């Protein structure tokens, strides 16, 4: 071969040396060397002139190619492979020299090793090809500017929800439709909105995983005044006699302000000291290698850092200087107060009789809190508030011209609650002589207690404040500084017991402790909702906002996120009483009627309101306790309060609402509505955890190694994403040390795990249906962006879930002897020991494992029916989820590790203040760099590295047995040629002849391997996400079907996606030699994949309530392996093995670890769920795939069922002992509830009867009609 190459090269050289080189005939110039001719042609006008004949020829060829034609007939058939197409590569083209064109040293080698392949006849005719996914997908886009003319023609809209008042002239302004069909509607009383915070957003801001090093520069015209700067006091309206005068301090126009060019270093001498102190008081409490890198790169290597500035530096002195500076500017700083509570001692205290002693009080020390008004002032004047939304709007979506307009529900500032508060504010009487723009400040509170250490009893009960004017995507990031600490709630101290003994000569009972804890919580909020806040609530606060405009800001309370025990304290209702819910008075015996029509009616008619009857009953009960000396649970008190689970404690929010009600009309504040549902505690750690635990009990009862197989399947579960699905080690059935995210993972992957574990076919089918409905409801309820269509889905899923749960509890669970798990039995024993040590009466418990039933009479199940109206009224659930607060707990735990553990709460408050101030100073001092794309806008990213080359002849020769490399070279050339010849299309079914393949040259006969493919995609909520795939991990991808119609989103084959498993990631430098054209080298990326095929004999999809089933093409199939254009990858896919069918048993297979079937997990995340629903706003339209319909007996309907609804057994009193501490979030509902309030859990009322579920198969009415009556919110 080498001799042949040498001879050929010599002949070509001799031929060229004896031949003069000429330009085109019309030019006539001749040259002796190719280099000379090349230089001449670069400037020859004759040679570069357009060739009319060539243009006409190209036009005729294009017309011929576009005409419909029959199948191309080549000479002999060869195995065909799926080929894909892509747009032109993004790499810069590199010109190739003439010598390289003459002597392609790689081509003859391949032609000798690989015998020529004759042409074939194509398998199908020519058809219209779809563009690649890279072309179909659109980048996220923010809302377009507001139209100045409100009278411009607009798309048809649904009727507005809030009627305007005749006295107010409303003007409606709308934005134009953006690329996704999204537009906004603003209602104002005058000019268009004065502030558009979303205009400055870029792709990095819309990314799910933004680059943390990119800090967008502030567009604010004002920034925080330097510490100790001059201030100006604005005049405020006259204040009532019973409230202190409220003043507003603003930065004066002539005071020095901090800018990026001249930052303020106060209280530090220079920026070098600030950088070092910022490193010291931020980040980890344990300075690790990562912290050391941070010190080097963010401090020492910073261009403004000067080592000479640190002469004489002492960290204690600088810290003391910072603390003193914060104390001088302590308007929004921490204060310590005592909370005074009234203690019932069982004696008469009638003030009309002088002999009666006064009501005893006890001061609870240690409340650390901040002024809400000062926090609002500080935040709203901060540069970070430049992206606050001051004017609410409705957001709509119109998919195309032929589609209707749907309302979008996502943020609080685009919700009905915010719009109603805004319009009520505009209707109210303005301040006398004030012409400032009036805006609503949306307050969103969160509180929960947490352990500060893994061992010991150190704990903290923080209260956090978020602002609803800020995007939830910012509030959800712990590093954004959007969470503001406003209070650290103390516990009832041990000294209270001594106080009570001295007062009554006996210790406090459980009822007394419970009552005092309620009084403590309400006393804390009376201090927070002080006179200054009431004045601001009525008259507003004049604040110069971050954009430099002076506005009057009116705070309004919208949501309070907390778990059930916290809601009980805030709503002042009895824990697990006759009426469990803090939002309605549905009795406990009816809470299992989830999804029934009468359940909706009961929620509407029985909604809790802050009525005179409620306040009067509480005041009467308090007079009986404090003045007449009755006990907290005396018969008279119970007769007044027990029917609706009221308690004899005055509600601070109710008192606040009454104090401002007359002055804020027409706005009304019903504090019960602020207690929004909590998906994490109520579903993931509530309903789903209870069902999952009971399914494990059922598997234990089944025996036959069912529980061992269950544990094995979860251990074999493939991971997905960065943290979406995590590796499950150990035995899942032990349920040890699990958080909410673990239960979420178990639900998302449950269907393949439980398949086939129950020997009874009917029971197994019912369990699979229930698991699918649970996963469907969870995915729909957790969406970050809802439309009218998805709200219909949520309502339907809620009805189906309630029906299936009742049927499952009555028909399936009763067939199994389910008993406590080993962990439950051990926990019960520990609780008994703990109760005995505390000196409590302990009943004789059941020896061995107790019988366990699935309890449906719980608040957490009842709460699932409130999600629909909460989303409509307050926005999606992630806006008021408890998860951001749980993440903020990590911060206070980090603070605690830096304290000396002596009066840790004060030290935590001081550390929080330091970090917050350093963050604000850092925003002003940061030298902002230009936004780096970081490949976010690109469809995908593969490294251009050439560190791992593969020389094709040697590589193919070294792996002759690998079926993936069979016909590798001709398939690769066909794939690359198809992409070069038709770069805008996704697929080509052409197998090229040897002559055509010779036109393609792979530079050096080398391809370059890569480890990672990163694919960026636009999510359903118009954000930018990213999936990372490797051949060794997360290797499965999804692409659009080749026959999908981009206009209709329909696929002729019925399923719009194709699935593949990545075997290798490569790129190569190639050129195509075309006569008459100058060749260029292009870098082309490609994937070597193994294809899946859809099992069409299996019914999958939402109608069938099953996942879609796949199988890998057999190795012997000629189409099993092929090449894929990375431009056509939508994103990664979570493909789970079909564990019930086992692996393929064939020792001759090269790839042995292959399962017989696989399942497409479209519940893996919310974006994947919406791709199969086909309703994503940010998705290119693809019609949702459906295969078959569920059989009639698969649809669980309890309309004809009679009997008792299982309520579970009453727990022993010892199991809910009131410790006053904080339990882990994994504890049962009864335990956590009693833990905070200190009240014994009452036994579940008698079993209720399951009446006809008359709406299980009824006709679906319109959503607005079904929600009629919820106006009480």
UniProtKB/TrEMBL annotation:
Name one matching Pfam family. Answer: Plavaka
Compositional bias ranges of the Acidic residues kind = 1191-1273
Look up the signal peptide feature and give its range: 1-22
- Indicate whether Signal appears among the record's keywords: yes
Report keywords, A-Z: Signal
Cite the record's Low complexity compositional bias ranges.
Answer: 234-263
Q: Where is this region: Disordered?
A: 65-90, 191-263, 1186-1273
Q: What is this protein called?
A: C2H2-type domain-containing protein
**The organism of origin for this protein:** Antrodiella citrinella
Q: Tell me the organism's taxonomic lineage.
A: Eukaryota, Fungi, Dikarya, Basidiomycota, Agaricomycotina
